[in-house]
Amino acid sequence: MSTPTTITTADQTYTKPARRTVWDFVRQQPLGSIGIIMIVIMMLAAIFAQQVSPYNPEDVDFEASPAFGGGAPSMAHLLGADAFGRDILSRLIHGARTALSIGFLSALFGCSIGAIIGTSSAFFGGKIDLLVQRFIDLMLSFPIIILAIIVIAIFPKTVVAGIDVNVIIAIAIPFIPKTARVIRSQALAVVTLPYVDAARANGFSSRRIIFRHILPNVTAPFLIMMTAFIGQAILLEASLSYLGLGVVEPTPSWGLMLSGVNADYYRTAPWMIIYPGLAVSVAVFSFNLFGDSLRDWLDPKLKL
Fold first, then answer.
1. Which long-range contacts (CB under 8 A, 24 or more apart) does 125-130 make?
2. Global confidence as pTM
3. How far is Cα 127 from Cα 302, in angstroms, rounded to an integer?
4. Measured between alpha carbons, how far is 96 from 100 in angstroms, rounded to an integer?
């Protein structure tokens, strides 16, 4: 980070905060930079999937499937073909679009609702805070996968732009209590600051104080948690799709590529399982690297 500047006036001396730049992050957090590079590659693959994929991910060619003696990686299919003769590389590229879309929307929705709940709980305090925290404890007592399955089972299936909205909601809901708990702990330190008391004394509404004076001051933990939750959402989407509760055929999905008929060929055609598994692992690893580095960079307590 650039060196802070000391400024002297007639009656006081103070230090101007150093400006943080992208180069500061790259220089101080090399592992986080690697994570960003991998994330950018996945995003570009998702955005330009139609242009860079060699085949249509839904095109079926049974002659290229293992059942007819094909499917192995070759010049025609660099990563091989699945049980239906569909090109694995093309499905991985288009699957990145599904994974990143669901991962980002789920993390954004869950973290946003959790931040509002956590901030409101800290602001009002008293019995409201007590009731909210007990409800959060109740939500945290459910395993994430069980809570997601319950949501999918309760709500009717709704598909928008080829993505099941219920999958996004099911993945986002488990993120709400986790975010609310962390943001509340940060907001408790903010609600006692003088400018919040001044806003109350001036008669500002609770909604204005929460959204304009408290939420902006918990942005750092919000961004850190959202980044980490994107990786978790990608893994959870793959798990739900593997169980047949997430994205459905023929939509390309890394979780779907690990299940169904493809799973029956794990001995004779291991490439069907290896490459989708690697895609999920690399995506989660990249977001975890970036999230951990972003936390170290934004949290002054972790700086020497």
1. 125/191, 129/184
2. 0.79
3. 34
4. 6
Gap between the Cα atoms of 122 and 129, Å rounded: 6
Quote the strand ranges of the chain, DSSP E. Answer: 5-8, 13-16, 159-160, 163-164
User: CA end-to-end span of the chain, whole Å?
Assistant: 12
Whole-number Å distance between alpha carbons of 67 and 49? 28
Segment 53-109, tens digit of pLDDT: 888 888 887 777 777 766 678 887 888 888 788 888 989 999 898 889 899 999 999
Longest dimension (CA), the chain: 86
31-63+79-302 has which fold? MetI-like fold (1.10.3720)
Token pair, residue 224, equals 């850190």
Domain boundaries, the chain: 31-63+79-302
Q: Are strands 159-160 and 13-16 parallel, antiparallel or unpaired?
A: unpaired
**AA identity, residue 244:** G
Q: Which one-letter amino acid corresponds to residue 29?
A: Q
Residues in the chain: 304
